[in-house]
Automatic annotation (TrEMBL):
Residues 129-223 form the Acyl-CoA oxidase/dehydrogenase middle domain. This is Acyl-CoA dehydrogenase. The keyword Metal-binding does not apply. PANTHER family: ACYL-COA DEHYDROGENASE, ACYL-COA DEHYDROGENASE YDBM-RELATED. The keyword NAD does not apply. Residues 11-100 form the Acyl-CoA dehydrogenase/oxidase N-terminal domain. Its cofactor is FAD.
């Protein structure tokens, strides 16, 4: 029996969400190899997700969404990732951005309501673009080299962003840019429409894993936007303030690891070399490796869902959860890497074949180590907490 999802499905609403997401696992799995091989964005998958309302899950009910909790968001992410990790990670960025905007109230109500209603009624997709070639991840505190200069009738934006996931499908993009206000430099957020003159994407995404997220470069060349495109000023704690929505990342990689685990067990139950009178599932070493996979998954999943529960049930404690959120990401992604490695050891040389999903899981799972926050950021947070006065 696989690690019981019933352990984490606690309500009827949870069950309905998991069943809804679960209906996509097999069709997404069937398409994943081609999307990965050709480095194509999973357009068909997102057509299905939009049709069934899975791109409006985190939008407030008042604007037509389902307003799911963080815990419920992770259940969906983990389930979708069993079918295709790249689709799940891409969906997570979109739904996660909407959850962040919903929970932080960082935009004006009018600006957020307008976007939320577009996401629901027009089935638009959104993501943020903050990483740049010279600054790296914004979590590390680098100031954007992208600039936004105030004009009499709006703003003029120039710059370049990297790792813009969902690039071929984005309708709206939130970008960060350095602005000057009263002689002081700040970081502003701007909401851009894809079709605006001067916005283009360069097809630069040719990677080892997560190939179909299509995280291409975004080029901003004399992009003129109206005054109301400026939606927020980033606070000085950006990258350090706890952001629960980012747990969609470890949930995705746990889902990939679960798929790898199931693949290895199915193989072990049926593979019987002529040197044995029974399938390799009876071999003690295979059973030991299987137990190790399940231990890693239990460790990561229980930790992740517990922290998500605290986030949902005790909003007043959210400012204190930065270390836990970072630790969940580190524990889960490293657990997922270990599980895929063990699964491949069980399957052996067959796992190296391009026709075997384990080969793709191995490549995709590596990307988790480079999603934010990286392990060194987590260890720095924990060490600083331990030694602070």
């Amino acid at each position: 029996m696989e690690p019981s999802q019933a352990m984490f499905v606690k309500t009827k609403r949870h069950q309905l969400l998991v069943e809804k997401a679960g209906g996509f696992v097999e069709p997404f799995r069937q398409r994943a190899a081609k999307y990965d091989k050709d480095g194509l964005f999973p357009t068909e998958n997102f057509h299905d997700l939009k049709r069934c309302g899975l791109t409006t899950l985190t939008v407030p009910e008042a604007y037509g969404g389902e307003e799911i909790s963080l815990y419920e968001f992770l259940l969906v992410q983990e389930t979708i990732a069993r079918g295709d990790g790249a689709t799940a990670l891409s969906l997570g960025w979109h739904n996660g951005i909407m959850m962040q905007l919903r929970d932080t109230n960082k935009w004006s109500q009018a600006a957020f309501e307008n976007l939320a209603r577009e996401v629901v009624h027009d089935k638009l997709l959104i993501n943020s673009a903050a990483t740049e070639p010279s600054t790296g991840s914004p979590v590390r505190g680098g100031k954007p080299e992208t600039s936004a200069v105030k004009q009499t009738d709006g703003w003029l934006i120039n710059g370049k962003k990297t790792f813009t996931s969902l690039a071929p499908a984005l309708d709206r993009i939130i970008i960060t840019a350095t602005i000057t206000t009263d002689g002081k430099e700040e970081v502003g957020e701007f909401l851009l429409n894809r079709g605006t003159t001067g916005i283009r994407f360069e097809k630069t995404w040719d990677t080892l894993g997560m190939r179909s997220t299509r995280s291409d470069d975004l080029i901003l060349d004399n992009v003129h936007v109206p005054e109301d495109a400026f939606v927020a000023t980033k606070d000085t704690g950006h990258g350090r303030s706890p952001q629960g929505w980012l747990l969609h990342i470890p949930a995705c990689y746990i889902g990939i690891a679960l798929a790898a685990r199931d693949n290895a067990i199915a193989f072990a139950k049926t593979y019987q070399p002529n040197s044995l009178s029974y399938p390799i599932s009876e071999v003690p070493e295979v059973r030991r490796k299987t137990a190790e996979m399940d231990l890693e998954l239990m460790k990561g999943r229980h930790f992740m869902y517990h922290v998500a529960s605290v986030w949902d049930e005790f909003p007043e404690r959210r400012p204190e959860l930065g270390a836990e959120l970072a630790a969940v990401k580190t524990v889960c992604t490293n657990a997922a890497v270990a599980v895929v490695d063990l699964a491949m050891r069980i399957v052996g040389g067959h796992s190296l074949q391009k026709t075997n999903a384990l080969e793709r899981y191995y490549r995709d799972i590596r990307a988790g180590l480079h999603n934010p926050p990286s392990d060194d950021i987590t260890t720095m947070i924990l060490a600083n907490n331990a030694y602070q006065k």
